[in-house]
Amino acid sequence: MVFDLDMIRDYYADLPARVEAARKVLGRPMTLAEKILYSHLWDGKATEAFERGKSYVEFAPDRVAMQDATAQMALLQFMQAGRDKAAVPSTVHCDHLIQARVGADKDLQESMNKNNEVFNFLSSVSNKYGIGFWKPGAGIIHQVVLENYAFPGGMMIGTDSHTVNAGGLGMVAIGVGGADAVDVMAGMPWELRQPKLIGVKLTGKMSGWTSAKDVILKVAGILTVKGGTGAIIEYFGEGAKSLSCTGKGTICNMGAEVGATTSTFGYDDSMERYLRSTDRNDVADLANGVREHLTGDDEVYSNPEQYFDQVIEINLSELEPHLNGPFSPDIATPISKLGDVARENGWPLDIEVGLIGSCTNSSYEDLTRAASVATQAKEKGIKVKSEFTVTPGSEQVRFTAERDGILHDFEEIGGKVFANACGPCIGQWARAGAEKAEKNTIVHSFNRNFAKRADGNPNTHAFVGSPELVTAMAIAGTLDFNPLTDTLTTESGEQVKLDEPSGIENPEKGYAVEDNGYQAPAKDGSSVEVVVKEGSERLQLLDPFSPWDGKNISGAKLLIKAAGKCTTDHISMAGPWLRYRGHLDNIANNTLTGAVNAYNSETNKVKNQLNGTYGEVPAVQREYKAAGIPTIVVGDHNYGEGSSREHAAMQPRHLGVRAILVKSFARIHETNLKKQGMLALTFDNESDYDKIQEDDTINFLDLEAFAPDRQLTLEFVHADGSSDQVKVNHTYNEQQIGWFKAGSALNLIKQQNA
Questions:
Q1: In the Cβ-directed half-sphere of 285, how many Cα atoms lie within 13 Å?
Q2: How many CA atoms lie within 13 A of 200 on its CB side?
Q3: 2: burial class by Cβ within 10 Å (0-12, 13-18, 19+)?
Q4: What is the per-residue pLDDT for 80?
């Protein structure tokens, strides 16, 4: 089935003229990313060149995708936008609210029982507003998008940071908060600062144990978790062409872990094969007709230093398998050094669980490569040392893998198959014993490995690798095993080596599925009723945030000064809190509970300046709100790293926090704060972070003159009567200041649609 073929056909018909117009404006050859960006300008053909990293640009994305956890808040906002139908093709995917516990069938049924109210809400809203709905069990949003909606040269936004996965099919696909999705669904232009460009030249060809996952694990080690911020990563070279389409998707997926706006590859034969394998011959034929415009110009790739802001080169023939971690996806260690590094750092060597799948690595090729390793354990008489789990990416992949005996191969070595959902990757894993908080090691093929991410245990050391390497490590049961060189002991006492993995790019018999889980919306949804039950603990209709009163904020208190890494997981935890993603007041009870207080090195324990006692962050903030006292949050570098969840911005806003002041922001979180009418500020002098004291009262001295490219001044009055004035920067343009003045971007949309 091909979705939205007319939209794709119309886009390709306009593409050559739009690229040519942009080429004339730029006066030079173009990268692929530039072709896609300039061909999606809100005003049509390009008439000016935009400055990378500075110009704010309005775009017209082709489509929107939302997962169930973020879709609740996005659609609650969209319901206020005054539209009777989404302006662009949009979809909702139920993948986050399914907890991995026993196995696929029982876990799915339990999720349906527990989350029925939310699923019914999402189904009815989708039906009413012309939005495609993918039921629980249909699969993980990014795998389903790759199989059904992604197309070369397109632009999409999605309410999940790993929307970037669609770059594997040559898209510019960008993770956003729900308010951004509302803009696009409401027929408004979508604003983005023109990204910088990082080129990654891939030479050589992979073999043996090395996989596409190792490319991005290597890149993460080079760029770190913030090195891609504000940039699109474009992969090119003969090595790029040698990768499968789903392998490209894996690389793009984890681009979120280096902070990149998105990542992409030029259209090539592997993408055409994947389109045809997934029954999209019409799309492949159309793409072939404009093939030259779906990749960067030859001159760009011949002289990349002239066209990219940064160039990285990786020889795939020399690339070694990696396991990255623990606690951060950019701690990159080649497998040959992992044992020594683990011992030096005191990381637990015994691997308790190996987990494969997730939106990053659950393609047919991934499963076949991992299965080729798994079958060796049985055939060679090796007892698997660790627990082992498999999470298929979609019902189509699961059904096909079951048909071809691949899932049976995993079950033969004791593998447990979970539902087609995010599961352990996002903390939806009911891991027995995790509450004991014991120090332990797991290995997985997911994308993130922050503390508490998978199982809620802060002492779980999680390492990220390819599915085949994770399978091998689970078989061996120890971090100091290198499958390239080491042997294992069979049950009969013989020493044997694992053979190199082998995989199948696309199934030889084609993909198959009995029920893909898709629900088409009503052609006319005007009679569809959307019900939010009064008193529901899961869903809550939104009240608009109050507009700014036009005055300086004074007498504010410091809620918390966060030390070190403060991701969206720290600001708004997932796991058991996912159940409240549609109820702003209830989920606000987890606000900043994972952030480390710089004054006592503890989590969820801050000073209440009203009475001098210490309490939980949300409780203290609610007391400030009740007393009418504004507050600010202070943070470190890359504040808001990780997920796109806008709850991390909406919750502090709901509780009365007025400003976030940090050394630097992750891109999506900074935008989310702006959309919700918050002040997102950065220190002009990072050392001023150290001047802020626990008992400070904060006054904004010149907020009344808030304007683009103009610093603000904050006064921090200390308990002893002394004070420090701190200069802070911001990146607000006139439109974004309008959001702040109105109370939120949504408030402005409502005014305009009224």
A1: 7
A2: 29
A3: middle
A4: 86
**Inter-residue contact 294 to 153 (CB < 8 Å):** yes
Q: What is the pLDDT of residue 660?
A: 98
Query: Looking at the domain covering 344-496, what would its CATH class be?
Result: alpha beta
Is the peptide bond preceding residue 136 cis, with omega within 30 degrees of 0? no
CATH 3.30.499.10 residue ranges for the chain: 5-318, 344-496
Q: What is the location of CATH 3.20.19.10 in the chain?
A: 556-753
8 Å CB contact between 200 and 260? no
Given a cut of 90, is residue 574 above it in pLDDT? no
Q: Put residue 642 in one of left, alpha, beta given phi > 0 → left and psi -120 to 50 → alpha.
A: left
Half-sphere exposure of 718 (CA within 13 A, CB side): 9
Taking residue 495's Cβ as centre, other Cβ atoms within 10 Å add up to 9
- DSSP letters, 544-593, are PPPPP-SS---SEEEEEEB-S--BHHHHS--GGGGGGTB-HHHHGGGTTT
Name the pTM for this structure: 0.91
Tell me the three state secondary structure of residue 697.
strand
Give the span between the Cα atoms of 141 and 130, in whole angstroms. 18
Short-list 175, 188, 192, CA closest to 78: 188
Indicate the pLDDT class of residue 751, thresholds 50, 70 and 90: confident
Two tokens, residue 435? 């509450």
Residue 276 has pLDDT above 80, yes or no: yes
Asked if residue 326 has a cis previous peptide bond (ω within 30° of 0), the answer is yes
Vertex 464 angle, CA 309 and 643, to 5°:
65
Give, for 525, the enclosing helix (H) or strand (E): none
In angstroms, the CA 372 to CA 406 distance is 9
d(CA 640, CA 407): 37
Q: Which of 697, 703, 731 is nearest to 715 (CA)?
A: 697
Residue 273 in tokens:
């094969």
Q: What is the DSSP letter of 596?
A: B
Bridging pattern class, strands 679-683 and 657-662: parallel
Q: Which CATH code fits 5-318? A: 3.30.499.10
- Pair 659, 652: CB distance under 8 Å: no
Which residues, 6+ apart, have CB-to-CB distance to 50 below 8 Å? 57, 194
DSSP secondary structure letter of residue 519: E
Alpha-carbon Rg for the chain in angstroms: 25
Catalytic residues: 95-96, 160, 448, 643, 645
* Pick from 680, 673, 732, 706: nearest CA to 549: 706
Q: Specify the fold of 556-753.
A: Aconitase; domain 4 (3.20.19)
**pLDDT classification of 259: cutoffs 50, 70, 90:** very high
